[in-house]
Amino acid sequence: MSRRGFLGVAAAAIGGIMLAPGIQLIEIAQAASAGTPGAGANPKVRWGMLIDTTKCANGCTDCVTACNTENGLAGGPDATRAQWIRKIEIKEVRTGRTASAPVMCQHCAEPPCVDVCPTGASFKRADGIVLVDRHICIGCRYCMMACPYKARSFVHEELTDQKPDVPRGKGCVESCTMCVHRIDKGEKTTACAEACTKAGHGAIVFGDLNDANSEISQRVRAVRSTQLRPDLMLDPGVRYQGL
What we know:
Blueprint: H1 3-18, H2 24-33, E1 47-52, H3 62-71, E2 85-91, E3 98-104, H4 112-116, E4 122-124, E5 130-132, H5 142-146, E6 153-154, E7 173-174, H6 180-183, H7 191-198, E8 204-208, H8 215-222, E9 225-226, E10 238-241
Parallel strand pairs: 1-10
Antiparallel strand pairs: 1-8, 2-3, 4-5, 6-7, 9-10
């Protein structure tokens, strides 16, 4: 039996035997992620984004294009349908006011995708970045169902010409990584934030939410911002201004 097949059977067993009490998935995911590469990221840091919807231009998709290019999500006739960031248009029913905003994985402090993952493939690093370990993802897609932001994609097709820094695989779930491959090399911004700045909009600010002197922390203190679905008490690392 292949490794993936074995994990699939194991997950099925877990689902049939251990899920009934409704308490085991969280424990399994936490135990598995404790030894996952990246779990030793700096716990004093919490990476996040502040998105100013008043500066986000309607119809502009520079952030989406930059994400696709950076992570090898597009190109050629067999381009994957996966999407790690998408633009949405929001309308206030009472006033008719509209706004445009990018939505991606919100990198929650209490990520439901991690809670439901039977193998620990979905995990949160010590610096707040939520990732998927493709070596142990069995493609059950529980995390996709658990995510209230519809931020995850499933890879249905074979992939070629992948980027070395961004490994992907058929049968796995994936989502925005906050360009973790850049951050771990010491770079200071994500592809989407960089593209937005170069386009002259400056709608996306990336940085350390725990650093009182960082631009994002100063902005969060100075302006009113909100998290998507704060009622769920997931404490997302992505904040929105102007909503």
